[in-house]
Write a structure and sequence with these properties.
It is built from 9 helices and 32 strands. The chain is an alpha+beta fold. Strand 28 and strand 29 form a beta hairpin. Helix 1 runs parallel beside helix 5, helix 4 runs antiparallel to helix 5 and helix 7 runs antiparallel to helix 8.
């Protein structure tokens, strides 16, 4: 049975319309049933059980099939506890958790796969510490099967792009079927009559005549594409993992897996006393007794020494020849020097002849005249010896101290000025810090000092002395670095912390615990719950480069984040 082209197109259109009508739209909650905002505000997107004590803090996240993933940490420090033995009891059922990763355990309780309220008991043993924790949580019931459906006009309003795509695919399929339609070939002239087909041999289809499968292939593809385009399965979002997020009350929800990645650590706040500090702006400078500059006494052309010019970072010893400087003269200056040498040579010749003549007349002349002639000759020779190097000699540049070459100004063949140093030598083991004190309190008695480097490292300082002259409205202070850190360079800007003998009461915390909030004031994050961190505005004063003294805003006993506080503050 053959199907005509018009019938095939009608069949494709009918299939497409049936696909559109029979395909259900995406289910949407009706008025009063939309809980999207409420779900977004919830801290825990997945069912979990929380239990803690003075020793341990436990969080169990429920997965599929009643699988409970357990994260075990120390309560005081939030440090993961690895290698612990955990037994979970639910009523009469009891199961032992297995370790699946560093400080991560898993246990399967089939009863947790059903909705309801569950009370769990955890028996923990970690080294010499053991504890018994209890926790409960609610497993919600699955969503109802029947969801309120909107009409097609509402669905079209809420998802117009989906419908436009489906209609576009449908039209494209129709155009494709129209372009691929069979075309009738013109009749061929034949002289012989065509014999009637035999009943035993089925008639063959001509080259220009479509087969039944070819007639319905394109319309069927159009119907299937339309069915896929309007299918709601393409518009269903995939479940996303739990990300850290800031809650409406300002607290930050950080899941336990994220805490492990950030290595969040805490400590309990305890009252103490410490000397407050004042911050000064300083700079790393070389020790004047262990550094030096090498410069020429006159302008000239730079020439290398026996080992070539020294390079940056090269170790040199005191008295070592670093380079040579050949005096550079203009044509007129060189002519004047040559004239002076020629005159000296002439005078030396005359004086030498006179001294020889007087020596030959010894006895006729006094010895005094002979001695004066010889002294005059020696003086002329010394004058020539002093002038001759200025024309053809060169000046050696000698290292004044032992150390490392920190600056090289010049190249082979270049002209150097006598006012500019060619090399600077610094001993990296003997460095100072120079700071400017604008505050009068910093000019008083100092109980201690330290330096804070740009990379966060700290080092102690020893006060060398104060300047009596005011520089830029401040008094200069010099400090010695007893043990300079590695990799430090001269000229590096640093922060100098002066500890004053004024002890105050407060809570001593690491400097990394205090961060700037989005509003500007300094805050610390309190570990209020296993996965909840609350920002607290504080008033803090520096103690040294690694510690601060919190004088207000934190109560004793509060668990304060000491590591990764800056990462928590960036959660939005």
């Amino acid at each position: 049975m053959r199907i005509s082209r018009r019938v095939a197109l009608k069949l494709a259109l009918a299939l497409a319309l049936v696909a559109v009508v029979l395909t259900p739209p995406a289910a949407h909650a009706g008025p009063g049933h939309d809980h999207g905002e409420e779900a977004a505000a919830q801290a825990n997107a997945m069912p979990r059980v929380v239990a803690d004590s003075d020793l341990f803090e436990l969080v169990g996240i429920l997965g599929e099939g009643g699988t409970l993933t357990i994260y075990l940490d120390r309560t005081a420090t939030n440090e993961p506890v690895d290698g612990a033995e955990i037994e979970v009891m639910l009523g009469d059922a009891q199961a032992k958790a297995e370790r699946i990763g560093p400080a991560v355990y898993r246990v399967r309780l089939p009863a947790l796969a059903k909705p309801g309220h569950f009370d769990l008991t955890f028996s923990l043993t970690a080294g010499t510490d053991s504890d018994l924790l209890a926790g409960s949580f609610e497993v919600p019931a699955p969503p109802e099967e029947g969801a309120v459906r909107h009409g097609w006009l509402d669905a079209l309003t809420e998802a117009p792009l989906l419908w436009v795509g489906g209609v576009g695919l449908f039209v494209a399929g129709l155009l494709l079927g129209y372009v691929a339609r069979p075309r009738t070939l013109p009749p061929m002239v034949e002289t012989d009559p065509i014999p009637a087909p035999s009943a035993a041999i089925p008639p063959r289809v001509g080259a220009g005549e479509p087969t039944p499968i070819r007639r319905v292939a394109a319309p069927t593809a159009v119907a299937l594409l339309t069915l896929l385009a309007v299918s709601p399965a393409w518009s269903q979002p995939a479940p996303a993992p739990e990300p850290p997020r800031r809650l409406p009350d300002g607290a930050v929800f950080v899941p336990k897996p994220t805490q492990r990645l950030l290595e969040v650590r805490t400590q309990r706040a305890e009252l103490g006393r410490a000397d407050t500090a004042i911050q000064l702006v300083g700079t790393i400078v070389p020790d004047p007794n262990a550094s030096g500059r090498v410069q020429a006494s006159q302008a000239g052309r730079l020439e290398p020494g026996e080992g070539g010019l020294p390079v940056l970072g090269q170790r040199v010893e005191r008295g070592q020849v670093l380079a040579y400087v050949t005096p550079a003269y203009s044509i007129s200056e060189r002519g004047t020097l040559q004239q002076s040498i020629a005159e000296l040579d002439q005078q030396i010749g005359i004086a030498e002849a006179r001294a020889n003549r007087l020596a030959g007349l010894r006895g006729s002349v006094s010895d005094r005249e002979i001695q004066e002639a010889r002294q005059e000759l020696a003086g002329l020779r010394q004058r020539r010896a002093a002038v001759a190097p200025s024309l053809s000699g060169r000046e050696p540049l000698i290292a004044p101290v032992s150390g490392v070459v920190s600056t090289v100004r010049g190249a082979i063949g270049g002209i150097v000025d006598n006012q500019q140093p060619v090399f600077e030598i610094v001993d990296p083991t003997r460095l100072w810090v120079e700071a400017l004190a604008f505050d009068r309190t910093a000019q008083g008695t100092v109980s201690g000092a330290s330096v804070l480097l740009p990379d966060g490292r700290t080092a102690p300082l020893e006060l060398v002395g104060r300047g009596l002259s005011v520089r830029q409205g401040a008094v200069p202070l010099n400090f010695r670095l007893p043990s300079p850190p590695e990799g430090i360079s001269v000229g590096t800007p640093v922060t100098v912390l002066l500890r004053l003998p004024r002890p105050q009461e407060g809570i001593v915390l690491p400097a990394d615990a205090v961060v700037r909030s989005a509003e500007g004031p300094p805050v610390v994050y309190a570990h209020a719950a296993p996965e909840r961190f609350v920002p607290l505005q504080v008033r803090a004063e520096p103690i040294d480069g690694a510690r601060v003294l919190v004088t207000a805003g934190v109560e004793p006993g509060t668990r304060v984040v000491t590591r990764a506080a800056g990462m928590i503050a960036q959660v939005r």
